Amino acid sequence: MTGIESRVVLLEAPERIIADGAPYAIRVCGRPADDASWIGWIEFSSQNGRATRRTDRETTQPNRDALLYWASGLEPIYFEGAFSRAR
Fold first, then answer.
1. Is the pLDDT of residue 72 over 60?
2. Chain-centre distance of CA 48, in angstroms?
């Protein structure tokens, strides 16, 4: 995914994903697209030193506020599915 360096962390979820015995912190991130919309994805950071996993684009919203609204409605079950899609 391009633009990782310009990412904004919009939300850090209180939940954790446990995989291979390691807890992963969940962050919903985004960045402005070339057309002024915002692109959103999810990052999972292992708390035991493993690499961060990221999904591809999960959504495109018309602006940052809309992306934040989208992120605030995500449920734990969505994060579980996103974790399985993340690389």
1. yes
2. 19
Q: Which two tokens stand for residue 28?
A: 């919903």
CA 78/CA 2 separation, integer angstroms: 23
Q: Per-residue pLDDT tens for 16-30? A: 999 888 899 999 999
Residues contacting residue 87 through CB under 8 Å, at least 6 positions apart: 53, 54, 55, 56
Residue 3 has pLDDT above 90, yes or no: no
* E-assigned strand segments in the chain: 8-19, 22-32, 38-46, 53-54, 59-61
Nearest to 15 by CA among 82, 64, 86, 60: 82
Q: Find out whether 40 and 27 touch, Cβ atoms under 8 Å.
A: no
pTM, two decimal places: 0.89
